[in-house]
Amino acid sequence: MSQTKKTEFLIDTRGEHRALDAFVVAARFSRDGRTLAFALGDGTARLVPMAEPAGDWRSVSVHDGAALSLAQDINPSGFLSGGDDGKLRRISGDGEATDIASFGMKWVEQLASHALDKDKGLIAAGVGKVVHLFDESGKKLKEWTHPSTVTGLTFDAKGKRVAASHYNGVTLWFVAAKTDTPRRLEWKGSHIALAFHPEGEAVVTAMQENALHGWKLPDGQDMRMSGYTTKTTSLSFSKGGKWLASSGSDAMVLWPFFGGGPMGKAPIELAGGDGINCTQVACNPKDELVAGGFEDGLVVLADIGSSRILPVAPPGQGPVTTLAWSADGTQLAIGTENGFAVVVDFARRRM
Amino acid sequence: MAEPRQELVPVTVLTGYLGAGKTTLLNRILTENHGRKYAVVINEFGELGVDNDLVVDTDEEVFEMNNGCICCTVRGDLIRIVNGLMKRRDKFDGIIIETTGLANPAPVAQTFFVDEGVKARTRLDAIVTVVDAKHLPARLADSHEAEDQIAFADVIVLNKTDLVTPEELDDVEQRIRSINRHAIIHRTQRAALPIDQVLERGAFDLSRILAMEPDFLDGDDDHEHNEDITSMGFEVAKPIDPEKFNAWIGALLQEQGPDLLRTKGILNYTNEPRRFAFQAVHMIADGDFITEWKDGDPRSSRIVFIGRNLNRPKLRRGFEGCVAD
């Protein structure tokens, strides 16, 4: 961005930021929105009280090693954390860490959760080739084995199916099925990240070869989306599934999932042109806005309709590793490889 | 990249047949007091006698790449593990990857050329192959992998020398040399050798290796046109034209990639004060400028091929054809 005026970044006026001194692996807001958690490469989690982000960010020891995955707990105030110590742990909103399961030397790299009615819910953990399904209390329900290591894991929007990506495709498991006969979505090659369309219309993966692959549902028709300069590691559908935002190019790349797209349609590219690769994308849950984080630490917010760009965080803090929105779409959490962690408040100010 | 690169993590690949002494060497590395910490990626945890929080247990997952290269396979598990280890980069100085006894080293090596994320954070320091002096002849007779493991090596630990006579040992070393003329060979018992002979060697700073070899250019023409692996080195004194070299090596790797296990070179490009280091595994190539030529150093370009069906006159003519006009 070339401009003579000094660019103003929102983190200076509306952000609360800290240098945490460890790789920021993931950020998540609790379901009740009261706490923001950052999971770090030193095995701790930092809990940000959203009532007072400028206050103390409590440090909780969670893993003997690095945290690798983070998800919302079914309990509205807490979190779930997976580590390279083989532990799946629960972190309560007030900072207590307890074990759910231990997998020995295997890394807990993938985590997903889905809240159902009446405090019920499901927790899925991808550990090597196996997905372990637990209920809200941590009781093991099922175990699903895949042909190779699970690289992406997500529930569909209703919590009826779990999608797991791996070498040569995606497996769709039906949570309530009495006999586990999954649906296999096959495509040769290494699939390394996964997203489920919010209306259940498609499953999309990122592939080792700098491209995306998708399957339309229910017919399973293949979709191929290519042209990336590097591997896509982050995928995010916009509200209602109109757009799929993706990293892996020097812009945020958004594919249209409407009007017959994405097949035969060109994607739109936002905040590009400077040769720095986008590493993270996160669509706002309420509006057609997408946040993008880049390899140099730059974070921007883009209005998908108008392509207008709002600078959020300046370059210089290391590659952006995580972006997360609060459920109401007013708060954005940012983390980088160098340990820079921020929460930005987009809510209209009460004067 | 907008910022200067972080220091790349050195990676040592440890190969060798079952029973050759790989685990003994690994246990030495993990227990000896050398002041360095290594993250170790292993496949057979049961054998390792050391409790270490930086030991990662993995299943080798070899994936084909759909990148137009017919022999390109990578280790998908290593891509994930390297990524994961980078989250606690400050906890170790280097990474050691042990392969299973029967593993072909190509997918491991290619992973470090092909995956951008891995390439941006690590550098392949050396491929170390442990061989058993007594059983190597039998292994070479009955398996392709034993030969490949020697061909890929930068450093060879010729172990269990106490189980053979001095004559047998010389024969075995000759046999190794016939496959890989350019590796450094250490004779050991119970894999005992100074750790710095194995780790953080910078073996890919090839000039050091090449400089140590007075017989670098010695021919061994008996091995042309057959299925045995052999190695050949070539040297030209005049500066190389980068465009000519790229065209020649590109076509050669495309055409003969499956036969070429490893290609390594240090090149003297025209009007370039720095040395260009080139290396390839099968069809997958990589190159970068390294340190400057020192005053007084002979500024000649050298290249080494290790593989099958190598045609010496054709390779020589090709390399000599890259000289700048």
Structure description:
The complex is a heterodimer of chains A (351) and B (325). Chain A has one helix spanning 10-14, and strands at 15-19, 24-29, 35-40, 44-49, 58-61, 67-72, 79-83, 87-91, 97-102, 108-115, 121-127, 130-135, 140-145, 152-155, 161-174, 183-196, 202-207, 211-216, 222-226, 235-237, 243-246, 252-256, 268-270, 278-283, 289-294, 299-303, 309-313, 320-325, 331-336, 340-345. Chain A has one domain: YVTN repeat-like/Quinoprotein amine dehydrogenase (Methylamine Dehydrogenase, Chain H), CATH 2.130.10.10. The two termini of chain A are 32 Å apart. Chain A is mostly beta strands and 351 residues long. Chain A is 1% helix and 51% strand. Chain A has one helix and 30 strands. The mean pLDDT of chain A is 94. Chain B has two domains: 9-204, 3-Layer(aba) Sandwich (Rossmann fold); 219-320, CobW-like, C-terminal domain (Hypothetical Protein Yjia, Chain: A,domain 2, 2-Layer Sandwich). Chain B has helices spanning 22-31, 76-85, 106-114, 116-121, 136-142, 144-152, 166-179, 206-211, 242-256, 312-320; strands at 9-16, 38-42, 55-57, 62-64, 73-75, 94-98, 122-132, 155-159, 184-187, 230-236, 260-267, 274-281, 284-292, 301-307. In chain B, helix 5 (136-142) crosses helix 6. In chain B, strand 8, helix 7 and strand 9 (184-187) form a beta-alpha-beta unit. Chain B is an alpha/beta fold and 325 residues long. Chain B is globular and about 60 Å long. In chain B, the strands form three sheets. Chain B has a seven-stranded parallel sheet, sandwiched between helices. In chain B, strands 10-14-11-12-13 form a five-stranded antiparallel sheet, with helices on both faces. The longest helix of chain B has 15 residues, at 242-256. Chains A and B meet through strand 16 of A and strand 3 and helix 2 of B.
